[in-house]
């Protein structure tokens, strides 16, 4: 059976035009998807049932037992941390925030280690953005800064930007200019009209120089700024001002390099400056397919997009203090629930060591690096493959992902609701 | 069978022409009935002022830009936080509270229904998700059509029926309630960083004018028999001299519906400015209200501003950029493909600013100079003019000249030369306040036949009992008691159940979302129109099949079906 208009739950592009061939409880073919999508749909490494670690052994346990254990661990902890959330549906994220509130826990999502600095910058200066269709239909200038969409968001350029014909650009590939800014050549920089190669750590300076030129203070700019020539900076500033609609996309090359949120702040302020001349927008290239959804859900329930600490009874937010890495590094939390993410593969060594030393429970369909740090893993259905649920695209457009076949697994939401019910029974309103 | 009897209520119910009577209100299964059994639990209202539940007909509480207002403002979140207590979740935020924060604060003030003022169709799912987390009010969503390409193409072709068909398809797809036009045409121009300066300017590339869009949409609205009229945020918001645009727009309103207005103008305070720059701006409330008084086909809401901090958020993207250029604080913008735009900036309205003082006065003047209270609704365009928690203070200002003078003394002394406010003696009475806070909303939204906004048998049992005895309280002098009384009900009853008592929410809620499905003949069903489908697939970034909001997002949806005249 072929299912059309399937939404891909891999990256923040949330491409919704896939054609997926299903046979029973198995995907046997994917059309329109990128190689990452192929692997996501066709990959078959799912954990069959909940497992618990006893000494060095893993033993299978029932869902009832696993859920009861998870609830007990969270109830007995003084400072539980609920981390992850970006690879699951909005409905589960919502239960997660309510669970954290009930427990007086800290809840954080993966944006803490990707676009957390972008959020901090937005909280300082705002965010002139738009939906991806605005870029597709209007943009005659694209800037990819500190990101490599051809490898990380393989269909970004063909669906939304460089190669996507739009209402006002009938021959997009010819009518659009593409600028790539990075510290090294990439697949993406190879197709750019203009490649700005900057010295590592030089983003802030280059952004400042461009702002100065756009502001009319170009005389201040020296012959070379972080490896970029004055001539190229002026050429690029002119390109930006001459564009009818410019769109900047930025990735972790900007958020996680020296300067962090200050880089993003500078990029946003450059965008604001350019709006005095023409139309310009800026957008983060979000990684996980629903990381933006976790920011949205956290925000409407708690007021903050990530790193929310309910220990004081109210929602408290202070990135650097209430963020997962900081809490783990300080050895502060005494239990951790990891949902739909893999901190074991991405967090600093000290943090992983602490995760291994406390009762860590993972809700995830697959065995991954975090499994090896965990005491209990509860496998679930994969949203977008055998469970449906809400996801937010990188530009904030919410989409309902599909379920392609009936699942033999419960969803994240079902597991979390059952844990919540046990906790609520003990803690009560 | 759940029953409840409210005894000894001092009732004002304008829709049923009850102007203050001691009455009992029997309630069964969430509705008001003729009588209940002896076993019904009794609430003694002690002669307190009892009104139908409050209805906010223009507020921004849910959806993409509201949530972005929270996202970008941790300082605002810190300002209003409350701890978990009983049935009440943690809340954060002052001007853009969390969904539960909004819901609890509205409940404390006796509000039982809220209309979200602007929903971008493409992002409607988000608004509905937040509605389900706003438990104690029934919700509705105005749906944005201001920069809709299919609408503008129909307008260019002078094809009202096609415009109606587009509205029908989109309202049905996104589970929207009414047509919202925000700076019509201007939001599309903002796609290129531009704006329109008047209602006869042409939208770039589309060859139509705001006046044509407004005129076509008013007629399309009536062809579809939508409960509400077109809900319009006029062009040129916040621009000195914009009263001319507003007057031109009022003149466009035809007389098409005997039951309600043909055009609802929102936050008119922001559209009643004279002068040519911020230096010579003055109040033109007299001219605007004169036009409204002469045109019963128009209803407006005030858009009152109140001094202090708030967050402005609107689909009017170009206006927010202009405001950012004035304030230089922070600015967010979010244009939505093929449909609309939006912007958000924080502001601080201060008595030190002559412009802000003039704005404050204009809102009050609009309410005091409109002869018929059914034509001027009390609202702040929450949170744009002020957070809705300021409503009790606005009520007190309208009921007391003394309070206005007391506040006036704190303003920039030049204010009185620019506004007529201090020459107005009118003090609104309890009945007029009841009209302006619930009855007029129900009538203007066209939901009184759904049993909303009144207390006759058969109506939904949404009731607000305020701890005020009107015969023992002189609002002209005791305005502080009026503020306190309207800020916190003794009881707020939603669908026959006490949801808030003395300002505290006491139960988990489960709201309904009211939406409209206009039924059109098959030849006007755009899902079968090859041209519409082709354009959709070419220019949107989501597939047509993934666009409509699924029923699962409206667990308690109430659908109003209409038969279109197409």
Keywords:
heterodimer; A: 429 residues; alpha/beta; 9-stranded mixed β-sheet; 5-stranded parallel β-sheet; 18 helices; 22 strands; B: 566 residues; 8-stranded parallel β-sheet; 21% strand
Provide structural commentary:
The complex is a heterodimer of chains A (429) and B (566). In chain A, helix 3 (90-103) packs parallel to helix 18 (412-427), helix 10 crosses helix 11 (230-242) and helix 10 packs parallel to helix 13 (261-274). The N and C termini of chain A lie far apart (47 Å). Chain A contains 18 helices and 22 strands. Chain A has 429 residues and is an alpha/beta fold. Chain A is 37% helix and 21% strand. In chain A, the strands form five sheets. Chain A has a nine-stranded mixed sheet with strand order 5-4-20-19-18-6-7-16-17. A five-stranded parallel sheet of chain A has the order 11-10-9-14-15. The mean pLDDT of chain A is 97. The radius of gyration of chain A is 23 Å and the shape is globular. With 566 residues, chain B is α/β, with parallel strands linked by helices. Chain B contains 17 helices and 22 strands. In chain B, the strands form four sheets. In chain B, strands 1, 2, 3, 4, 5, 17, 18, 19 and 20 form a nine-stranded mixed sheet that branches. The chains are: A alpha/beta (429), B alpha/beta (566). Chains A and B meet through helix 3, helix 4, strand 8, helix 5 and helix 14 of A and helix 1, helix 3, helix 4 and strand 14 of B.
The amount of beta strand of chain B, in percent, is 15-25%
Mean pLDDT across residues of chain A: 97
What's the average pLDDT of chain B? 97
Helical percentage of chain B: 25-40%
Strand content of chain A: 15-25%
**End-to-end distance of chain A:** 47 Å
- Helix coverage percent of chain A: 25-40%
Q: What is the approximate shape of chain A?
A: globular
Alpha plus pi helix count of chain B = 17
Biggest interface, chains and residues, is: A-B, 63 and 62 residues
Q: How large is the count of helical segments of chain A?
A: 18
What structural class results from the helix and strand content of chain A?
A: alpha/beta
Radius of gyration of chain B: 22 Å
Main beta sheet of chain A: 9 strands, mixed
Unreliable stretches of chain B (pLDDT < 50, length at least 5) are none
Please count the beta strands of chain B (DSSP E, at least 2 residues each): 22
Which spans of chain A have pLDDT < 50 for at least 5 consecutive residues?
A: none
Shape, per Cα inertia axes of chain B: globular
Biggest β-sheet strands, sense, barrel of chain B: 9 strands, mixed
